[in-house]
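Practice problem 4.
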């Protein structure tokens, strides 16, 4: 094809598209896919295109000069117009993306998004508002579906959380723990504002051999998943304890249960057995990756009890050791989770020293008061917003004077 032919074709194409785009400006305004109107500062309509007339069902002579823009809005949107849209337009000179509903003369409503600009005269006084409205039916339907989906998700989450809380409440022993000859108490506080389902747990129960078992631990995770693991841990310990006098064997049973049912999960736990030998109390305990308990004497002396062990469910074969120690009259044994000593304030840990001081300050009190004091001190240290779950179990041997 010669250059002359190509040039002629280009001219013809240009003429074709020019003719195609040579649209009547008035028709472009009247037939636009959005509604246009011009209004005085008080809202009186002075000009409107056919799209706006079609959306509202009025003839041009029925509204120009006699009706105000806000009269075409739903009742709630009229209030919004007077209190927000109009003042914003006067102050800022424009408004964008304002969602309202136009009311057809039949009563039908059409969701639209409003953009408007304000024109001022030579003296800076407002004299005309130009308004463009876009059909938001599809957008509204999409937003409503999103809101509905969010509500369904929140309801589902609320149901799961309620179930998890119910499960967790069933895992904790009664508020009053009764072990013959001993003062035993526990306290528990989930992370956050206290409504979250956490992974800390404790249990106090009779083993069936004239001894009592106490377990305190921390499973990985939060919410319903943590509640499931807590259930497994609690009942695995209860099932193993009557079979053996060795706490390490009980924790080994918990380890096997985790590997069998949840091989990708783990927990820390300390389990102890309390029994009486003549008039004394003997404690045998084993720790699986958990903080060792504190024993505080009536004179305030403090020491840890036990030997550190490996985390339950982490290794193929856990390293667990049994330690036996007596508890004398007036002694206090405190088991706690990391939510106590790892509580933070401005980057500083609550730590073991503060924990010892808190216990020492309440030694004269009963076990429940001591447990509550530890939880309260850890919460106060971090401004009442617990970063992690907190669980505490206190065993106190009554002194002869108080028994």
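Answer key:
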């Amino acid at each position: 094809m010669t250059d002359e032919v190509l040039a002629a074709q280009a001219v013809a194409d240009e003429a074709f598209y020019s003719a195609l785009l040579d649209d009547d400006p008035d028709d472009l305004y009247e037939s636009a896919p959005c509604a246009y109107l011009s209004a005085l500062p008080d809202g009186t309509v002075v000009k409107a295109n056919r799209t706006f007339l079609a959306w509202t069902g009025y003839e041009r002579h029925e509204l120009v000069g006699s009706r105000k823009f806000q009269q075409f809005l739903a009742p709630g949107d009229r209030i919004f117009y007077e209190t927000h849209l109009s003042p914003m337009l006067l102050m800022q000179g424009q408004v964008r993306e304002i969602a309202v509903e136009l009311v057809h003369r039949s009563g039908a409503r059409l969701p639209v998004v409003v953009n408007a600009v304000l024109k001022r005269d030579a003296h800076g006084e407002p004299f005309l508002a130009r308004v463009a409205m876009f059909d938001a039916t599809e957008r509204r339907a999409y937003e409503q579906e999103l809101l509905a989906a969010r509500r369904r998700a929140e309801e589902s989450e609320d149901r799961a959380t309620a179930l998890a809380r119910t499960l967790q409440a069933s895992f904790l022993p009664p508020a009053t723990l009764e072990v013959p000859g001993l003062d035993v108490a526990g306290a528990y506080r989930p992370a956050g504002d206290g409504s979250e389902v956490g992974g800390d747990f404790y249990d106090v129960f009779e083993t069936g051999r004239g001894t009592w078992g106490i377990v305190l631990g921390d499973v990985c995770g939060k919410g319903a998943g943590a509640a499931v693991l807590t259930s497994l841990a609690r009942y695995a310990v209860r099932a193993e304890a009557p079979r053996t006098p060795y706490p390490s064997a009980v924790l080994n049973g918990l380890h096997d249960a985790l590997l069998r049912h949840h091989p990708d999960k783990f927990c820390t736990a300390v389990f102890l057995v309390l029994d009486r030998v003549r008039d004394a109390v003997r404690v045998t305990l084993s720790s699986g990756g958990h903080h060792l308990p504190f024993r505080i004497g009536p004179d305030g002396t403090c020491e840890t009890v036990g030997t550190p062990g490996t985390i339950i469910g982490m290794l193929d074969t856990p390293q667990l050791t049994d330690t036996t120690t007596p508890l004398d009259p007036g002694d206090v044994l405190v088991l706690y989770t990391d939510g106590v000593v790892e509580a933070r304030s401005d980057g500083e840990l609550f730590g073991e020293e503060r924990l010892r001081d808190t216990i020492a300050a309440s030694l004269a009190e009963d076990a429940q008061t001591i447990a509550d004091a530890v939880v309260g001190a850890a919460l106060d240290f971090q401004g009442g917003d617990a970063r992690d779950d907190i669980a505490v179990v206190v065993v106190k041997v009554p002194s002869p004077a108080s028994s």
